[in-house]
Automatic annotation (TrEMBL):
GO BP of this protein: L-histidine biosynthetic process
Protein name: Histidine biosynthesis HisG C-terminal domain-containing protein
Record's signal peptide: none
InterPro entries according to UniProt: HisG_C, N-reg_PII-like_a/b, N-reg_PII/ATP_PRibTrfase_C
Alphabetized GO MF terms: ATP phosphoribosyltransferase activity; magnesium ion binding
A Pfam family reported for this protein in Swiss-Prot or TrEMBL: HisG_C
Ranges of residues in domain Histidine biosynthesis HisG C-terminal: 1-35
Source organism: Methanimicrococcus stummii
Residue intervals passing through the bilayer: none
GO (cellular component) term, any one: cytoplasm
Length: 38
């Protein structure tokens, strides 16, 4: 099991999430970039 962090343009979030689910992704968390702490 592994985690992937990515930044995605806000206009394409839903299509990316849909594609990830088709590929088997689970527990997808969508946050605004301002909430991420480096």
């Amino acid at each position: 099991m592994f985690a992937v962090h990515a930044v995605v343009d806000s206009d394409s979030i839903f299509s990316v999430v849909r594609k990830l689910k088709i590929l088997g992704a689970r527990d997808i968390l969508v946050l605004p970039v301002e909430r991420l702490i480096p």
